[in-house]
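User: I'll paste a sequence; please echo it back and then give the predicted structure.

Assistant: Echoing your sequence first, then the prediction.
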Amino acid sequence: MNLCAGTATIDISPKSPMQLDGYPHVRRVATGTHDPLLASALYLQNGDEAVLLCALDLLMLNGDFARRLRQRAAAAINLPESHVFISCTHTHSAPVTARYLPFGDEAVLRALDPAFLAQIEAQTAQAAEQARAAAQPAELTWRTADARGVGGNRHDPNGPTDSEAGVLGVRSLAGAWLAVAVIYGMHPTVLHEDSTLVSSDFPHYTRLHIREQLGQDVAVLYHTAPCGNQSPRYFVNSQTFAEAERLGRKLGAAVVATLRAAPECAGTPLAGALCPVALYPRHLPAVSTAEKQLARYRAEHEELLVAGAKRPRVRTAEVAVFGAEGTVALVTAAGDGRLARLLADLQPFEVQALRIGEVCLVGLPGELFVEYSFAIKRRAALKTAVVAFVNGELQGYIVTPQAVAAGGYEAAGRLFEPEAGDRLVATALNLVERLAVGAG
């Protein structure tokens, strides 16, 4: 069979000023658009099998809306849902698109706009249809780019980090690049809460660089890998667009270099699988315990400010306060029934996998520490790239036991214990095993 590929890129930017998401306790209504938010789609077909990849420049989606998005896109191009793979880039400069209890009682700041959600749903399906309609004979290659220096561990610059960026390149038979999918794990948080411009953050410049080098019509899909403990915190000189450009172009250059290094044509089997996984919320502490933790973290943050500590340490302490506030918010929501109602909407939690050639793309819900990505990549039956923010979020981070012991932002505000990460890994490995032997 011959592989065919089609692409589409659609501007999904808000049409009016909206509150930007990603940082708590701040009114941050967009004053303009620095770069458009995109829905980038890649349709691949080989005989009777086809898959769709789509990357959305959004922070995150709740599970119920993510499923609706997937269902509509799948119906639009007549594919099973297991073959439609949609993720969020996790930019912190896009409008609010999810209910998120750890940010507390911010109903005004975090109000969802039904019109914007309807726009996203319609335009994602439109991108799927356009990508399928544009399909032409093609070939693909899987490569790995060295992204060292772009970002790293946000608690310890020498701590665990994954500098490997997965790269899927698709070319026409005439040799023109049609699409590049990049899978890399770092928070798109060069821009902070003082920025009021809509932006995809550093991935914008990664896309820009790739298009400048490989062709302006190339569709660039940016998929964020597990990055719960990964960010540019220790790797930026400032929280500016100039720094976003420096890091984004550095990643783009690594991607272009690996694609130009005599790219081989990969095999082209296509398959998909989707499986629910049971995740159980942790036993939340008493309100008094949560409030004591919050008071301690606030005191530690204040001590660092008074001592004139360096910015990365101060920021780590500041977000630890956010995490402790998240625990208080979750405890409160559990007490009044809001947490149970939201969890009912978020389920089922799902793990997804696509086989594209001799590589699997694993999709996990939520925001996991990089160690869980390592666990999948090291043990999977096929070479695997792991993507986060697929099929919804998990109201907080999936951290490691070591992170729970150490405390801090992600561990303080978590809804699930590390055991949830182990369940997600086990389910992912089972799906890859199925696809490795040819079962969708």
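The chain has one domain: 3-278+346-436. The mean pLDDT is 95.
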